[in-house]
């Protein structure tokens, strides 16, 4: 059992992935899960795991919600995980063997999947992301979307062995759901209003960047869907700001 590191996850309607996530976390004594209103079978799945401790409450944006979830853990050492991610056996062994020291921060390789296929382009290449830290030293930024663990020059950043599997999209409808959610969060904390022609150009460039500059075409139809989805997300995050500005007049 990994007793001195708490895994912390936030969830909402994650029934398609949370079971896979929790199956890879059986070596942890404590998994803190903060749910913000699941209406599918997510909660039933979570309750079937004895080392998972479920809390429910409001969603405050990704940064603040994750920071709130950190406060619910009994350990100061945190491994942050998303509900659509799972740990490799090598990563778990790396955490078991790890000597926890002041200011230590662990970053890990992440493999990103789109409907069961690992993406090797489209901006979804393998990336390295900070997931292990002491909450007394570091925490998440307060951004509502695209949050990350903020560290300073005092951090001792190490590479953990193994990797995380990120099953970001398991069905196509999720691309629409995420475009709507992320654009809504962006529009809620940004106020810059662009003319319609600029909004259209930004959306077109998002497709061009993903499909051509980031070589999304190498991923076949998945790359095309991702490029189009990125374009839609960019369009809506700016058009929502524009519409709110116009309707106030």
In a nutshell, what does this entry contain?
The protein has helices at 18-23, 42-47, 62-70, 89-97, 173-189, 196-213, 220-248, and strands at 5-11, 31-35, 52-56, 77-80, 85-87, 104-114, 117-118, 127-134, 139-140, 149-150, 156-169.
Draw up the topology in text.
Elements: E1 5-11, H1 18-23, E2 31-35, H2 42-47, E3 52-56, H3 62-70, E4 77-80, E5 85-87, H4 89-97, E6 104-114, E7 117-118, E8 127-134, E9 139-140, E10 149-150, E11 156-169, H5 173-189, H6 196-213, H7 220-248
Helix pairs in contact: 5-7, 6-7
3D structure, described in words:
This protein has 7 helices and 11 strands. The strands form 2 sheets. Strands 1, 2, 3, 4, 5, 6, 7, 8 and 11 form a 9-stranded mixed sheet that branches. The chain has a two-stranded antiparallel ribbon with strand order 9-10. A hairpin with an 8-residue loop joins β9 and β10. α5 runs parallel beside α7 and α6 runs antiparallel to α7. The longest helix has 29 residues. 34% of the residues are buried. The mean pLDDT is 97.
